[in-house]
Design goal:
single chain, 452 residues, alpha/beta, FAD/NAD(P)-binding domain, D-Amino Acid Oxidase, Chain A, domain 2, 2 domains, 8-stranded mixed sheet, 11 helices, 19 strands
């Protein structure tokens, strides 16, 4: 094996592969290696929710994800539709009448993009309902439905107490594994090498001596530049460079199963119940839950953000549910903290917005999948993309809950930083240097995490 490289990308998830993809396709980089002890896209990337949206409370993140969506659309067309891209949108639902604070947040998040925000009150006839395919014909911007009759006619599965629906239109679903596989095929054809090994240490500075432990024992690679795209292990690689990466890992879970009861219409968008709720329990259940500290919390009011969507193609039968209510950081080196109570909890919560889902409480269909992955996040839940403090080292990570949808823009930006090429103005706010910008830090302190 050649023990030298111009650029070593550490991490073979969708983000690391995207970095390599844009290094070779946009900058004609040579002698690139991707290092990972696991199969490509087999850790966090394998647990993707496979959604995308340009909905964020801040225009920097809106611009970032708009950029990534455009790059994914280009790959969808170049690859002949391998991403299975849809544009049903995101449907944000609340029982509040005319939530002015949410509407103001929309205007702020889209303030630099020019995307239209359309209000639909009683008698509105201009609203175009969800359309999963063809995605090219879906409208842009946001539709805010304030008419209960329009909501019931458009979203028949929703409970009748839904008072406002915010329909994000540049949003939908993708197949994350085919996206990564397409980029992987392209980089391999361009000569990028995959090295199956664990990084044990990094010595020297540009060039770096990367100590490896792989199937054939210990070895090393010398690289002029390195990219830390190690996902949940960003801190490990940072520590080898003497840097403390400001991230933590929080394990979040999902379930997917065949919708035999046809509880969810196949054209329903990715739907998020924004409202806090207290789960309904029998008296017997309440007594049992109260007896254990780890379950007693499910008796308290729980945060909003539960989500549900059809899974797979429009003619399919599966659905997917998630609820990122866990706030406890975990060590990604430990066993995955999969919670056996999660399927019951998420079904009870999701049944408030889609009542027909209650048919599955306590009786999930055989073959249902309960899985999870690590959200690697900064305090403000913005990614880290750009130069590290160590000369010659770069970072591409902390994409908590939005790794698949943002991988392309992350790869393109990181590749541009590596080659010292111009980047969009918004990109500077995504670098580690933002922590020296006191004005931006004060602004971010008032934002939610947005990690759905």
């Amino acid at each position: 094996m050649d023990k030298t490289a111009t650029i070593a990308v550490i991490g073979a998830g969708n983000v690391g592969i995207a970095v390599a993809y844009y290094l070779v396709t946009h900058h004609q980089a040579a002698h690139v290696v991707i290092i990972d002890p696991r199969d490509p896209m087999s850790l966090t990337s394998a647990q993707s929710g496979e959604n995308y949206r340009n909905w964020w409370p801040h225009p920097v993140m809106t611009a970032f994800t708009d950029h990534s969506i455009s790059l994914m659309e280009a790959i969808e067309q170049e690859s002949g539709g391998r991403l299975n891209m849809t544009r049903g949108g995101y449907s944000l639902v609340t029982r509040r009448e005319h939530p002015d604070d949410l509407i103001r947040e929309l205007h702020h998040g889209y303030s630099r993009s020019g995307a239209p925000i359309r209000l639909h009150e009683r008698g509105s006839a201009s609203y175009r309902p969800p359309m999963r395919a063809p995605w090219q014909q879906a409208p842009d911007g946001v539709d805010v439905l304030l008419d209960r009759d329009l909501i019931r006619a458009t979203f028949p599965s929703y409970a009748h107490d839904a008072a406002t629906v915010i329909h994000i239109r540049r949003a939908g679903s993708i197949s994350a594994q085919p996206l990564g596989q397409y980029m992987l095929e392209r980089v391999r054809a361009a000569g990028v090498r995959l090295v199956r090994a664990q990084v044990q240490g990094i010595a020297g500075r540009s060039p770096f001596q990367i100590e490896l432990n792989g199937p054939e024992g210990r070895s090393h690679i010398t690289a002029d530049r390195i990219v830390n795209a190690a996902g949940p292990f960003l801190k490990d690689i940072g520590a080898m460079l003497g840097e403390d990466i400001p991230v933590q890992c929080v394990y979040q879970q999902k379930i997917a199963f065949e919708d035999r009861e046809q509880a969810i219409p196949r054209d329903m968008p990715f739907s998020i119940d924004l409202d806090e709720q207290r789960l309904a329990w029998s008296e017997e259940d309440r007594g049992w839950l109260a007896s254990e500290p780890q379950t007693a919390r499910f008796l308290e009011p729980m945060q909003g953000g539960i989500h549900c969507r059809p899974d797979g193609p429009p003619q399919g039968h599966w659905i997917k549910l998630g609820w990122a209510y866990n706030q406890q950081a975990s060590d990604p080196h430990d066993d995955d903290p999969l919670d056996p109570h999660f399927p019951d909890i998420v079904l009870r919560g999701a049944s408030r917005l889609n009542p027909k889902l209650s048919a599955y409480i306590g009786r999930l269909p055989r073959g249902a999948r309960h899985y999870g992955g690590y959200y690697t996040l900064t305090e403000e839940n913005w990614p880290l993309i750009g130069k590290m403090d160590t000369p010659g080292a770069f970072i591409a990570g902390a994409l908590s809950g939005f790794g698949s949808m943002a991988a392309c823009a992350t790869g393109a930006l990181c590749a541009a930083w590596v080659f010292e090429q111009p980047v969009a103005d918004y990109a500077h706010s995504l670098t580690p240097a933002r922590y020296q910008d006191e004005v931006l830090r004060a602004e971010l302190a008032g934002l939610g995490s947005g990690s759905l």
